[in-house]
Amino acid sequence: MKIRPLADRVVIKNVEAEETTKSGIILTGAAKEKPQVCEVIAVGPGGMVDGHDVTMTVKPGDKVLIAKYAGTEVKVDGEECVIVRQSDILAVCE
Amino acid sequence: MKIRPLADRVVIKNVEAEETTKSGIILTGAAKEKPQVCEVIAVGPGGMVDGHDVTMTVKPGDKVLIAKYAGTEVKVDGEECVIVRQSDILAVCE
Amino acid sequence: MKIRPLADRVVIKNVEAEETTKSGIILTGAAKEKPQVCEVIAVGPGGMVDGHDVTMTVKPGDKVLIAKYAGTEVKVDGEECVIVRQSDILAVCE
Amino acid sequence: MKIRPLADRVVIKNVEAEETTKSGIILTGAAKEKPQVCEVIAVGPGGMVDGHDVTMTVKPGDKVLIAKYAGTEVKVDGEECVIVRQSDILAVCE
Amino acid sequence: MKIRPLADRVVIKNVEAEETTKSGIILTGAAKEKPQVCEVIAVGPGGMVDGHDVTMTVKPGDKVLIAKYAGTEVKVDGEECVIVRQSDILAVCE
Amino acid sequence: MKIRPLADRVVIKNVEAEETTKSGIILTGAAKEKPQVCEVIAVGPGGMVDGHDVTMTVKPGDKVLIAKYAGTEVKVDGEECVIVRQSDILAVCE
Amino acid sequence: MKIRPLADRVVIKNVEAEETTKSGIILTGAAKEKPQVCEVIAVGPGGMVDGHDVTMTVKPGDKVLIAKYAGTEVKVDGEECVIVRQSDILAVCE
Per its UniProt record, what SUPFAM superfamilies does this chain match (chains A, B, C, D, E, F, G) (predicted)? Predict the structure, then answer.
């Protein structure tokens, strides 16, 4: 089953705690309950959003940092995902 | 009886719990009271909404994910429906 | 006596409960106190509203669904009416 | 003494209760404390307001319906008036 | 000492109570603590304000009505003044 | 050490109480805790701010009036300064 | 490991207290808990943000002043960083 996000939305998946540690990015304080390092699963087409033309700059496979509490949680094929707007993505980890 | 949504509005219907399970999308935690996977029943014409030109990208029959609490509940021909704006639709499930 | 709404405003009148049942649209739960199915009585000219050009897409006689709590109640020739903006109208029932 | 409203503002005067009844428009419920049917006394020139070009569509002598609590009360030559924006005027009674 | 307001700002001075009575404009109710009839002392140049081009339509010497609580109080050469935006001025008294 | 404000920001310094009295501008009431008459220390380049082109109209050395509570306090070379947006400046004292 | 901020975002790192003192900028009062003088680590590409074209005017290595409470804290390679929007940067210290 495939999930196709609309407009400027991005489907992301939490990266496991082990991988997070390996990559060298650990979140401070209260951030422990909900990791902010995520992997991009699917990316919307962008286009006109609230009257502004949005170009998508992330792609599936990217490791991204998102603001905590951003987005809506869903479960796709038994895996917990979050759908955020691209503007909720703070940075890409390379 | 037919319901014709205005502007960027979309009429959606909750997909039964069984079908939700089959499709592999199950909503987490508090989402159980109000399923987020819905089927599109009717789609507005789009056009100028708050001064922005909106193109409709969903069509009747699409299975969509919506944010909980989005939209207004109505009952059409005895069936519970919800009217949302297209921007409340997070993703299409294929 | 005639009431002529300004800009994008629409004067609507509650449809009687009997007619509502007949048409097959019944509102759920808390909606019972204030029916959402209304008949359009008068339609403003549209035009520039908050800097956006608004085209009126409803006409007198249309049966429409409005969000509860939308609009301002007035009594015209002894009959209770509500004045809403066209953007408060969710859908037309055909 | 004359009062000249600026921009999209309109000076209105409450219509006496008797006249209100005669015209067939009576306001419901809590509206009794402050009648909503008013007569237009003076109209601003319109023009650029918040970056939007506003055309004035009401004229002195018009009977108008305004939302309760809209505007600022002033007393001109001993008579209580209210200054509202034209966008606070819901409809014209003819 | 001179005060030169920026952008769409206007420096105004309360008109004495006697003069207010003479001109025939008396403010109702709670308005007594802070008269709304003021004289314009200085006017900003207008121009681009929040991305909109503002043309100043009041001039020094004008008697104006302002909404209560609008603006910032300052004392210039021992005299209490208020600095408001032109959009806070409701009307000019002639 | 030099501080260079970004965009439409302006660095200002409180003018001493004595000077304030001399210039003839004294602030009323609660304004005593934080004088509003300030001297401009440094001015940002202006340019695009929130999508609007901002032209800077104040210059270092100007005595300006600012709204209380506007801006962020910093200490530069041991001297207390405040960084405000130019739109927080009400007027220039000449 | 590298962190690449998106859009108008900037990754900054707190400058040590000693260095802060040396540079002559000390923050007043409650600012002590979270220093506002930061060093820029990485800068996003700018471009269209909320429909406005943003040009980045800071560069890695710049010492900047940010408003307290701005941004999101992350830890990159064991070092605490903050991701802010460029518009949260008040000034550059030279």
Answer: GroES-like
CA distance F56 to F9: 9
CA distances from G69 to C36, D15, E86, G81 (A): 44, 53, 34, 13
Judging contact as 3 or more Cβ pairs under 8 Å, the answer for C and E is no
Q: Which of F88, F83, F89, F87 is nearest to F42 (CA)?
A: F83
* Cβ separation F1–G25 shorter than 8 A: yes
At A53-64, the pLDDT tens digits run 999 999 999 999
Q: Identify the three-state secondary structure at position G42.
A: strand
Q: State how far the Cα of D42 lies from the Cα of D12, in Å rounded to an integer.
A: 7
- With tokens 């550059």, the residue in question is G92
**Chain D residue numbers touching C73 (CB-CB < 8 A):** 27-29, 31
% of chain C beyond a pLDDT of 90: 51
Contact at CB, B90 and A77, closer than 8 angstroms = no
Q: What is the mean pLDDT of residues C5-9?
A: 96
Question: Which domains does chain C possess?
Answer: 9-93 (2.30.33.40)
Question: How much is the ipTM here?
Answer: 0.78
Cβ-based contacts of E88 with chain D (< 8 Å):
none
CB C74 within 8 A of CB C81: yes
- ∠C63-C65-C71 over CA atoms, to 5°? 110
Q: Which of B35-44, E27-36, G85-94 has the lowest mean pLDDT?
A: E27-36
First-to-last C-alpha distance (Å) of chain A? 29
Would you call E1 and F25 a contact, using CB atoms and an 8 Å cutoff?
A: yes
Please tell me the distance from the alpha carbon of residue G57 to that of residue A54, in angstroms, as a whole number. Answer: 22
Q: Which strands make up the sheet holding F3-5, listed edge to edge?
A: F3-5, G89-93, G63-66, G37-43, G9-14, G79-85, G72-76
Q: Which residues of E fall within a CB distance of 8 Å from F28?
A: 73-75, 80
3-state helix, strand, coil in chain B (%, to 5): 15, 45, 35
